[in-house]
Amino acid sequence: MELKAKYEQRIEQAEAELRQVKNKILRISTLRVLLFAAGIIGTIYFYQAGTPIICLTIAVTFVPFLALVKYHNRLFFRKDWLETCIRVNSDELSALADNYEPFEDGKEFTNPAHRYSFDLDLFGRHSLFQALNRTCTSFGKEKLAEWLQNHLEIKEEIIQRQEATKELAAYSDFRETFRITGLLYKGATSDREEIKEWTEAPAYFSKKWWSRPLLGIVPGVNIVLAMLGVAGVIPMTWFGLAFGLFVIGSFGLIKPVSNLQRVYDKKLRILSIYAELISLIENREMNAPLLRHLKAEFGMDGKSTTHILKELSRELDKLDLRNNQLLYVLLEGSMFWQLRQVMRIEQWRHKYGKYLLHWLDVLGDIDALCSLATFAGNHPAYTYPTIAGKPFVFLAKDMGHPLMPARQCVTNDADIPSRPFFVIITGANMAGKSTYLRTIGVNYVLACTGCPVCCSSLEIYPAKLVTSLRTSDSLTDNESYFFAELKRLKQIIDRLNKGEELFIILDEILKGTNSMDKQKGSFALVRQLMELKTNGIIATHDLLLGKLIEYFPKEIRNYCFEADITNDELTFSYKLREGIAQNMNACFLMKKMGLIIND
């Protein structure tokens, strides 16, 4: 089925069920009101009829009323689930139409100093992150940003990521349920720090010298006194007196336990959000090696992570019994219940707390992989790149920018066959040089992240990507535009001198200086890059830079983007051609705009 039709079908199915659920909610609401009113009226009416009749009235009105309350809550949850389902699939329809506004853009990850992410517009509005991002947890969002900022450089790791992405791309129902669940139980960006702070906090009661002895003394004294009283050795009042003293003594624990209970309840709410998602993963069969490895990270001691988190939930439910006054007296007098439960929770935290952040990080991995898989599923025409084991190769066929609408996207090839090797791109303003560089960079990042790419075929060697496309001056650092570019170029040279394998993309070297100085510096820089045996692509307006092929006939290849002037009209094909550009358009455009009259 066509992707668009599939998403539309899911929306139609969800809307149809939502209408049914809303009708049920309305009917149940009416029935609840009627039962409640009948219960009140019946109790008043049969007040003089005796206890049995009153109990029967309550049984046939209030008991069904309470059952309907529970059912009503389930219906409201289903309503929320279906509304979120409609939203999720509607968002995917927007994505198919090249509208990624419904998704978070990751602008908080923007870093002008990063070695390539700022130049390639990986974060922010209309960014690659926004196109990829389907994460439903803060852990997944951070993981996806980390992957884009630190692409993989090992062949085997990229292939494993590809296999995981391919498998999850086939699990559309799982990905939909996973995202809906995550959006319903939406966590907060502060969850990591809150969980970390809680797991590292010292135990309140477990470290106190009197805690454990007291838990043995209270029930022990009660049992002994009760047995002696029953045997007639001592009066039973002694047991009652001890029981009462224990209840009074427990009052001193009420305030600290209440404070701890509020903290525990908050942490449980946070963990419950992620427990639902972890449960989906644990119950899903996965075959790709990376997915099997991640799934195996959940749980310990033969227990699933879901089971372990439910243990904490049960212990907190037991602690909640102290809120019932009758149960408080019985439980505190007999065994110091609240102290016992707090210590059991502290023991749980001591045993499992150190694993919580790791489990949440693994959850983030799966969440981020689901984003890659959704991107892959939404682009069936894209291809997974071949990863070369030896340096260097970048061989692309029919390569386009993944964020450019298909109807506007002009595809081109790219060929960097060996090391050292540089492609020099010349061309007029607006002819497509910068877009071509970003197209290469974005597809390179996608390839090294484990995603399919916007090419009919692509073979790459995963060297470390470094770009210099968009340098800017800094008033706060008292740094000029030209000096900022020099710093970026020095970082590249320093990396190469350290032995790092780089793939370099440069746009207009030494933009901030005069033409003669620029040509001399550009020639010298490219010569040094050749001596350091690296690879890359350089775009320039300086046609003389194309002369470098005379010095490096086997290591440099010239390509260009031409501007064609026909019948006094400027046109661009945006197709890459071999050779050095022949046409420039600055003076033509200035004349057309009336800025100059004569050449």
List keywords for this structure.
single chain; 599 residues; alpha/beta; MutS, DNA mismatch repair protein, Chain A, domain 3; Rossmann fold; 6-stranded mixed sheet; 4-stranded mixed sheet; 18 helices; 10% strand
Question: Would you kindly provide a written description of the structure presented here, covering whatever features stand out?
Answer:
The protein is α/β, with parallel strands linked by helices. 57% of the residues lie in helices and 10% in strands. It has 18 helices and twelve strands. The model has no long low-confidence stretch (mean pLDDT 87). The chain has three domains: 1-99; 109-378, MutS, DNA mismatch repair protein, Chain A, domain 3 (Orthogonal Bundle); 386-592, 3-Layer(aba) Sandwich (Rossmann fold). 34% of the residues are buried. Helix 5 (155-170) packs across helix 14 and helix 6 packs antiparallel against helix 10 (254-282). The chain has helices at 3-45, 51-96, 128-132, 138-149, 155-170, 172-184, 191-200, 211-231, 236-250, 254-282, 289-296, 305-319, 325-335, 337-378, 433-449, 481-497, 515-531, 586-592, and strands at residues 386-387, 394-399, 412-416, 421-427, 457-460, 464-468, 502-507, 535-540, 556-561, 563-566, 569-572, 577-578.
Topology, element by element:
Elements: H1 3-45, H2 51-96, H3 128-132, H4 138-149, H5 155-170, H6 172-184, H7 191-200, H8 211-231, H9 236-250, H10 254-282, H11 289-296, H12 305-319, H13 325-335, H14 337-378, E1 386-387, E2 394-399, E3 412-416, E4 421-427, H15 433-449, E5 457-460, E6 464-468, H16 481-497, E7 502-507, H17 515-531, E8 535-540, E9 556-561, E10 563-566, E11 569-572, E12 577-578, H18 586-592
Parallel strand pairs: 1-5, 4-8, 4-9, 6-7, 7-8
Antiparallel strand pairs: 2-3, 2-5, 9-12, 10-11
